[in-house]
Design goal:
Distance between the termini of chain A: 67 Å
Radius of gyration of chain A: 23 Å
Oligomer: homodimer
Shape of chain A: elongated
Strand content of chain A: 5-15%
Structural class of chain A: mainly alpha
Largest sheet of chain A: 2 strands, antiparallel
Order of helices and strands of chain A: HHHHEEHH
Number of helices of chain A: 6
């Protein structure tokens, strides 16, 4: 996958309506009208979002002229997840540091609590 | 994390230069000049990219006036990975389907190969 594909995927995901459309499609195929229902948006506005998702290869559409259901295509999501995976050790490190800090803080609090009881 | 934070993260990741900056910072802190080196880009152009990354919380910068090293902040990457994780079953399904298809195809090829040898 070239860097441009990854940029196209991240651009497509950088919008809450488009992410909500993907979440809806995760429950099954849907027509444009069905996808537009939960949003206070016109059909042309939804169609624009669908075009962005389609160009990014995140959705595919049926070929029937009347009923062109959209369905989720997860390939580009996997590539995005694979890219992010390289950074996992960094967020796990920050979590470890936070845990260590909380542990130290709890020990300090306990010590302080004991001192208060002694007085 | 509100949907807007996720949109800001994905927007920041939707550029190959910004992803390359993050990859460089994964190897350790760096100054703006050091970050600019591998790119055929002016310092102001790199600074613009750094501002996008900083606003998205993907990097933090030191406070020293002269030497303000940038470092990676992985929190928003974790949130993006968590969002993508919801779709894992879809790309694993497609992989299973591909594997199944290849398996069937190999069986067919083998059968065909045996037939050819018989003739």
């Amino acid at each position: 996958m070239s860097p441009d594909h990854l940029s196209t995927t991240f651009t497509a995901l950088a919008d809450p309506t488009r992410r909500a459309i993907l979440a809806r499609l995760a429950t099954g195929e849907a027509s444009v009208t069905e996808l537009a229902e939960p949003f206070a948006m016109s059909l042309p506005a939804i169609s624009k979002h669908l075009k962005v998702l389609e160009r990014a290869g995140l959705i595919a559409r049926g070929r029937e002229a009347q009923w062109r259901p959209c369905r989720l295509e997860a390939g580009p999501l996997k590539d995005a997840a694979d890219w992010l995976e390289h950074y996992r050790r960094f967020w796990e490190q920050s979590f470890d540091r936070l845990e260590e800090y909380l542990h130290k803080w709890q020990k300090k609090e306990k010590k302080h609590g004991r001192k208060q009881r002694k007085n």
